Amino acid sequence: DLSEARDHYRTAGTYGAITTISLRIGDALLDTGQFWEAIHWYQEARNDNHTQYSPTLGGFALRGMGNAYARMGDYLQALDYQYQSIPEFKKEQRLDCVGASWGNIGLLYVEMGSVQEAIPFFHRALDAAKQQEDGDNQEENLVNLGDAYLRLGQPARAMDYLHRALLLARGTTYPLMTSTGLRLMGVAENRL
């Protein structure tokens, strides 16, 4: 039982483990569509994290809350939590996590219909992925940029990003993103 595990670690004074357990419970609830319960556990993770503070774990809790609000369609609240996560991740130089938050912010702007505002965040996320030599996230952000330019009615520009994503796909492990990129390339080709 996860509650017993949390109590055990709290008694032992292992607060990093307690925070991690709370985060995992939140993630599991988010995955099963139990959004309010997930938010509760992400908040628990934030509360647990105050004893032995870890900026990265705090950032994960904030980003998790943002993801839950996004799934419920409350994009403004989701943006707020995604933005709050970035300084936390920066405190421990977690560029991979900062990049993921920037990508999430870009996706939220797309969902809100503010595609032009999303583009700088996808570029920031892409730059972070390049610095980390993370091909999967480079591919994802190139596809996101291609999608954004396609939505803006710029198929030639979209095709450039999508072609770059396809070139990266040979060395990545993200088949869903590769198939999304290929689908978008077909749409862009039809609009040229």
Question: How would you describe this structure in keywords?
Answer:
192 residues, mainly alpha
Compose a concise summary of this entry:
Helices cover 83% and strands 0% of the residues.
General description of the model:
The chain has 192 residues and is mainly α. Helix content is 83%, strand content 0%. It has helices at residues 2-12, 15-31, 35-49, 55-71, 75-91, 95-111, 115-131, 135-151, 155-169, 175-191. Helix 8 (135-151) packs antiparallel against helix 9 (155-169). The mean pLDDT is 89.
Helix content: over 70%
Beta-strand content: under 5%
Order of helices and strands: HHHHHHHHHH
Q: What structural category do the secondary elements indicate?
A: mainly alpha
- How far the N terminus sits from the C terminus, by CA atoms, comes to 56 Å
User: How is the biggest beta sheet arranged?
Assistant: none
- As a whole number of angstroms, the C-alpha radius of gyration is 18 Å
* Discrete helix count: 10
pLDDT below 50 for ≥5 consecutive residues: which ranges?
none
Report the count of strand segments.
Answer: 0
Principal-axis shape equals elongated
Mean pLDDT: 89
